[in-house]
Each structure stands twice: as C-alpha cells, then as structure tokens.
Amino acid sequence: MIRYPILDVCARIEGHELHHKILRENCRDFDGWQGLLTQSELEGMTPLLKKHLEESESIYPASVRRSLHVLAKHHQHQSNVRSTVLLEILNIFQREHLTPVLIKGAALAHTTYPDSALRPMRDMDILLSKNEVDGAQELLRNVGFTQSKSPIPADHYHLPSLLKTVADVTVCIELHRGLYPQCPPYYPKLEFNRLLATARKFEIADTEVLTLDNEETLNYLYQHAFRSPLTYESYKLINAADIISFTERYYKILDWARIESDFPFLYKALPLMHHISPWDFSKIPIGFVSLKNRNKKLSTAPYAGWPHKRLKELKASGKTKSEILFNTFWPPSWWVQVYYGANSRIKKLWCLLTRHPQNILWWVKLYSSLRK
To answer: Is a pLDDT exceeding 90 seen at residue 165?
Structure first.
C-alpha cells in the first residue's frame, strides 16, 4: 500500500499553523493525485482532505478540486441518510425500552466532528447488553434490515451485520454484545452495566443518546485502530483522525491520572500519533510529546507480516521467504511502540524477542488446530 504524506497530515479535524505549512510543502510538485484520491476514499479521509487543502490554501490541480467537490457531495448525502436511519433505529429501541450505547464513528460524527459528513464510516456500531442484543437484532430485521450471511462465531463480540438500502445508500449496522474480540493482544474485560453507569449523554436532533465516557472512548478508539488482532485490517487514517481530534478537543477535561493507570498502552501510544499528524501545541502542552519524537520522523507503516496477510498473498506479491520472515518477526519500529507499548529500546527489544513471537505462535496454534 502506498503511503501519502498529504493524507497522513490531514488526519485531524482542526488544522493549525505547522500542519498547514507541512501540507503546503507536501503539495508542492506532487503529481500522484489520482492515486491519492483513490487511497483517500479507502482511508475515509476525502472530506477531511478537501477541508484541509482549502483551509491551508495549498496549491493543487483544478481537476482534483472538482473531484473533491463531487465526492464531498456524495459523502454529505451518505451522512444525511445514515443520520436519518440512526434516528429511526434509536426511536425503535426507545419504544422497546432498550438501552443502546453508540460507539466509534456513530457517536463521534455527532459529538467530536462539527459536521457528520466529515466522518465517513463503513458501518454504525451500537453496543447493547447481552440480554438485549439478540432481540434488538430481530427488531431491525423486522423493519427491513437484511442480516449478512458472512459466518461469525456464536460468541463473537458483535452480531452479523445488518444491511438496508435507503436512497441509494447501503446502511450497515453492527450490534455489539461486547467491545473486543477474545484473542491476542488481549483486551480489558468490561461489564456493560459499568459502562452504562458512566456513559456520556448527548443529543442527535433532540433525541437523547448515550456513548462511552471520554476516557473509555479514547481507549476504545486506540484499541480498535492500533491494537487490533494481527489478522485484522490495518488502521485507517480516519481512525487516527478520531484519536488526534478527540484528544485535542477534550485534553483539558480528560482524567490523565486514570488514563495512565487504567490504560497504560494508550498513554504511551498517544504521543506517537505525532508521527502521523503533528499535535497542535496550542491545545495540548508541548511536553506531551518528547523532544525526540518532535524532532525525529518515524515511518507509520502498519504491520505487514503473517498472519495479517496470508502466505499465498505474500508470495504472490513477490516477497521472498526471508522477506516474509523479516516482516513477520521484525515489524516497523513505530508499530511495535504503538502496539506493544514499548516506549524504550529495552522494552522494544523484549517485545520483538518475546511478546511478538508469542503472539505469532498463538495464531500458528489456532490455524493448526483448524486444519485437524
């Protein structure tokens, strides 16, 4: 996958002086716009790309400006449809006395983003208690949603996707009975009632809605984007935009003592987002990012070894056995730090020699057992 620095730096809602300067410099003499637009759609970044190119007064081709205008109108239409459908779902659940909690993009689009169209999403995720989730799934099937036939284990943390086409937009809903899968790198066990007791209230068109509290939200965004199982897809830049924007917006009211004690991986990973898009030090203290991280630029390439990619896929891409082994057992430095919380050379080496091989071995054993 080709990385585009222009897209990376746009992974935020609000721009700032340094961000605009970097963006203008990256646009100068750049000629790969068609590939960038394609990747922008895949990363969920097109509305933010348009916003930042315009606000930074970057120079880019008129044809790209026209394409972004058309794509932005498309995303606005999708957003309007999703919001309408979401309100309908919430009203159905309210009538049935269910207690849904919106998570990820479904909540952020209406709390953190000034315009929900700036936050494209593949699906809308709703968390319910284990006692309510199956009934909620059936309710939505009864009002026109079609359940995906893709196989999902009976104990999976979310139910099969629900799909419905409205105004030429396919709306996808995922109802969750939990937040995390039960596999490495292993996640905190959470009780729905505890999450509900600390849930944050907000409104969508005068309808009261719940989402996770600020600290739990930030940790979930990080775990979902940057600490997912090795077989899951790589993080998308829109996920980085969520984290960077959420942190800058709520920095002064976040409970940093709780984050450091309860979510140590998140606490160590947040400063490293600086390598994707530079933090706005008018909103967070400059000491939040070490001098080393401010002055050194690390590649933010994701994990690209096995089992993230199948051996057949890796071989078909032209990778030699030695390259496959290297990518599998010696992943990029930035990724190791973000994924395993390795914030020193010694911890990084320990993760590369112990934690990461153990993670790989778990997947080897799983796939071996499936072949029997």
So the answer is: yes
